[in-house]
Structures are given as C-alpha cells and as structure tokens.
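Title: Prediction job returns without error message
Component: structure pipeline
Severity: low
Priority: P3
Assignee: unassigned

Description:
Job completed but the reporter wants confirmation the result is attached to the right record. Sequence as submitted:
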Amino acid sequence: MRVLLVNAHPDDVEFTCASTCKQMVDLGWEVYEILMTSDEYGTVRDDFKGERIRRIRKNEMVEAAKVYGINEDGTPKIKLIWFGEIDGHLRFNREVFLRLKNMVIDINPDIIIGPDSFYSMDLHPDHKHTGWLIYLLVQSLEPKKRPTLLLYHSFNTNFYIEIKNIKIQVEAWSKHRSQTRPIFNKILVPLRRLFYFLRRIKTGPIIAEGFRKVDFSREENLIKNTLHKIVYYIFATEMDGPDRYHPTPEELGLFPQK
C-alpha cells in the first residue's frame, strides 16, 4: 500500500494521526508526507520568523519523522516533500491546485490523509485551504482512480483506526522542540487519553483515531445537524485569518517556493 499524508504544517500528523502513521510504517507501506508550508511564523519571536524558523522546523520535522521508522542509511522511512507555500498565507488557487495534483498523480497513493475543511475542528486558514485542495483534487480524478480519502480534525467522524501506542504521539511531538516544552509533553498524554475515552461512545471498548471517510456523495459536506452547526460556529469564529501574522512575508523576504 502507498499512503500520502498532506499537511499544512510540520507536526500536524502528531496531533491527528500519529498512531495510524506508525502502524502504516510498521506494516511496510510506502508513506509520503507533503508539507504545504514550513511554519515560517511558528514562533512568537519576530527575529526568528522567516528563514530562521523555517530551517529549524524542517530539521525538527525530519527528527519527528524518524520516530516512526528509520532506514538503514539513517533517513526517515516517511518520505518528506516540502511544497513551499508560506505559513499563514497558503494560496488557494489554480496554480497551487495543479502543482499539488501533479504531485499526487506522480505518487499515485492508495490512501490520502489530510484535514477536513468542512466539518473542521481547526479552521486555521492553511488547514482550510489544504483540506479544500485535497478534497477537490481527489474529486477531480476519475472515480475508479480515486484513492481512499480520510480527513482528520473532523467533528463528523465515521471511520476509526485503533490506537496501538498512544505514547507515539508525544514521542514524535517532543521532537518539535521549538513548539513545545517538557511539561506540555507530560500533560499531553493524559489529555489525549481523556479525549479518546470520551470518543468511546462511538468506538466502543477501544480507543481510536477518528477520520471522516469521504464518499463524494452530493450533500456529504452540507452541515444539517444542529449540534454540528453549533460546533462549526464555535471553531469558525475562533480563527481570525492571516491578518494576525506579522510581519508580512514580503518584509521577511519570503516568497512561495517552486
């Protein structure tokens, strides 16, 4: 099997599907990961924003990927692909769509995993754009050639994969040292256990990572459930868009990479 993870930022896998990713690597599947941005604004320090934090985040991502499995030459078994868009300013246009589509066609995955931009628990603009791009991209393929599409960060989950090792999330997440602290790593495990325990109303006796499995039916992205509408409103009003990212990419000398 060949799997493609498409994420807006480094560390998105750690928060959403770390156990699933580890199991895929352990099964010997080919695992690719496209990082749409390099987290150029992933710090509160303006003197680190731009190229400096980009280098740091790329190195951290490599170390995190190694947690899931390492080749004999010391490289991670997960094949990392840096798309080159800018954190907080991921474009949603035809140019990006076609470039990403060509990458997906070249990789030819059996499964694609990415964010849910319709029933989303995280409406960061980069996550929204990544989710829409992936959904529309797969939808544009011939039905017989479409990979299975699983969407994380969804509050309308319908597909679950049992967690074999809940600690893998923290082990990989701890490699993103610029984004966390040891105390946060310790707190994360019990919080995740609580989250997955509450989800057992859907998963029964097991704890599991949840996804929305897409079937491209006519109204699958139409939010009808009242509770879902309330949840969406809460998350949709939480994010204030790319205006909160300062200074501008141009001021930092950042431009999309091709």
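Comment from assignee: result matches the submitted record. Strands lie at 2-7, 30-37, 79-85, 111-115, 148-152, 159-162, 208-213.
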